[in-house]
Design brief:
Number of helices: 7
Number of strands: 6
Shape: globular
CATH superfamily: NAD(P)-binding Rossmann-like Domain
Low-confidence stretches: none
Helix content: 40-55%
Radius of gyration: 18 Å
Structural class: alpha/beta
């Protein structure tokens, strides 16, 4: 369990990311616990499928809206209140840095497969927000970037049927999912490199989704 590994460093707050007050409370509780926030990685997301048109009907807009609320609004709420907290930090170095926000996008922002209209829309929107948000927050010493992962072995993705994961892995020259430590390493590289700002960067093992 992650709690056993991190011990006193682990801290959780119940939060529905679609509710702005919940996110505000979670950020404030985190600041109370640790004294400051220097890194924020908004990563709540769902990928509920929905075809634009089938013989049985058209795109379910209730599902579309829920995906947008979680993936896009939720991430924006986290970034908003993290930025407020970070702006109050003392600079951590002689470059004036106070914090970094790293959105979790997806290669589906550029190569969404069938049924991923809502998911791809939200991830594309996150990519589009990175540069203007970086420009907004630069004067406060806050950087903004996004990571666009390919297929990674997470508790959610590992629940998919083997037939699905085999098909997805076939789109990757490496023939496998990314590992959690590889994603974490990439986050660390962005945090440590003070000149990465306003960009979305892929970590995908050369994954290029086919037209499935």
């Amino acid at each position: 369990m992650i709690q056993d590994e991190l011990k006193e460093r682990f801290f959780a707050v119940k939060c529905d990311v679609t509710k702005e007050e919940d996110v505000k409370n979670a950020v404030e509780k985190s600041v109370e616990r640790y004294g400051a926030i220097h890194v924020s990685i908004p990563c709540a997301g769902v990928a509920w499928p929905g075809m634009t048109l089938t013989s049985k009907g058209s795109l379910n807009m209730d599902t579309f809206s829920k995906v947008v609320q979680i993936n896009l609004f939720g991430s924006t709420y986290v970034a908003k209140y993290s930025a407020v907290a970070m702006s109050k930090n003392k600079p951590v170095n002689d470059l004036g840095e106070k914090g970094v926000i790293i959105f979790v996008s997806s290669v589906a922002a550029e190569e969404g497969q069938r049924g991923q209209v809502a998911y791809s829309a939200t991830k594309g929107a996150l990519n589009g927000m990175v540069l203007p948000m970086a420009r907004d927050l630069g004067k406060f010493g806050i950087r903004v970037a996004a990571i666009a992962p390919g297929i990674f072995g997470t508790p959610l993705s590992l629940k998919m049927p083997k037939s699905v994961t085999d098909r997805l892995n076939a789109d990757t020259p490496m023939g496998r999912m990314g590992q959690p430590h590889e994603f974490a390493h990439f986050c660390g590289a962005i945090i440590e490199n003070s000149y990465i700002n306003g960009v979305s960067l892929r970590v995908d093992g050369a994954t290029k989704f086919s037209n499935l």
